[in-house]
Design brief:
Layout: E1 6-15, H1 19-30, E2 36-39, H2 46-54, E3 61-66, H3 89-97, H4 103-121, E4 127-130, H5 140-150, E5 158-159, H6 166-172, H7 176-185, H8 189-195, E6 199-200, E7 204-205, H9 216-223, E8 231-235, H10 243-248, H11 254-262, H12 266-273, E9 276-278
Parallel strand pairs: 1-2, 1-8, 1-9, 2-3, 3-4, 4-5, 5-6, 7-8
Helix pairs in contact: 1-11, 4-5, 6-7
């Protein structure tokens, strides 16, 4: 791993989404080009790819990428997913902001996704985040904190705060409106997590326009501008020509571009120029569950 003045966790989202996404993440992790990944444990590919990720335990932080908007839940959700398929983000968000989310169903599904991780790893995850940032939504955040508290995991793992300082977002200038909207959704999340005894990152970047005509390396350099004290950058690498991905997710063309950049020599050169380096935990964080925990 790279040591530098500005350490940051580099987290690949969507492990187990498809085979092509999972293989790309594993390749980058094996090459030391990632320090964390969040797994979609409700996906059918999780049992197949979990052993390979577990084999990298200690080299990469492994978390649960809570999924409430894609595919089938791991158990019955008669109100949220009456036909057996999770709702799109728009519907979930509307329910969240109108108080219409079925709390018991959300808690039960989060618990099932955590169980699926623990069955594969034999321990709790190092962190929890969410597909399409669902973990920060009203109604979901409370359910998540309640489930984790019942499991006695306060102080044992960290949570992704998808928000950042507006001034830092503006300075980076990448997908500005989208990044500000996501930060708005996350308002109050870090404080709620701290009150419940959970640490979060402090600084968040990686929000992308997913435009294949942009230079991802140049954008990545902007993600390192105005880093937070516990900076986290998310990424979405994947292999090319992933037919399954094209059928289920709008982010297709840019994944191989991210994969190519992160395994190239340009990636460490850009980090060095920014005085930044990837780490599996922030320097001030003491060791704890699964090898790491993070101060809030």
């Amino acid at each position: 791993m790279l040591a530098a003045r500005h350490p940051f966790v580099l987290c690949a989202d969507d492990f187990a989404l498809t085979p092509g996404v999972s293989r790309a993440i594993l390749a980058l992790a094996e090459a030391g080009r990632l320090t964390a990944t969040g797994a979609m444990t409700n996906r059918s590919h999780w049992p197949d790819f979990a052993p390979a990720l577990k084999a990298l335990d200690g080299r990469i932080a492994a978390g649960v990428h809570v999924n409430l908007t894609l595919g089938a839940p791991l158990g019955p959700m008669p109100r949220l997913a009456p036909a057996g398929m999770l709702p799109p983000f728009g519907r979930l968000a509307r329910l969240a902001f109108t108080g219409g989310l079925p709390k018991a169903e959300i808690e039960a599904e989060i618990a099932r996704q955590l169980d699926a991780f623990e069955e594969a790893f034999g321990r709790p995850p190092d962190f929890v985040d969410g597909h399409q940032h669902v973990q920060v939504l009203p109604g979901v955040r409370g359910a998540l904190l309640a489930v984790l508290a019942r499991r006695g995991l306060a102080g044992c793992l960290w949570l992704r705060n998808s928000g950042d300082r507006p001034a830092a977002i503006v300075r980076r200038g990448i997908a500005l409106r989208k990044a500000l909207v996501i930060a708005g959704l996350a308002t109050g999340f870090a404080a709620a997590a701290r009150r419940a005894g959970f640490a979060t990152n402090a600084g968040f970047a990686g929000v992308s326009a997913f435009d294949p005509h942009r230079d991802f390396g140049a954008d990545f350099a902007r993600f390192l501008v105005a880093p937070g004290a516990r900076h986290l950058v998310m990424c979405h690498p994947g292999e090319a020509e992933d037919a399954e991905l094209a059928a289920i997710d709008p982010v297709v063309e840019t994944r191989p571009q991210e994969f190519a950049f992160l395994r190239s020599g340009r990636f460490p050169d850009l980090c060095a120029a920014a005085g930044a380096g990837i780490v599996r935990r922030w320097p001030e964080a003491p060791a704890a569950a699964g090898g790491e925990t993070f101060e809030g």
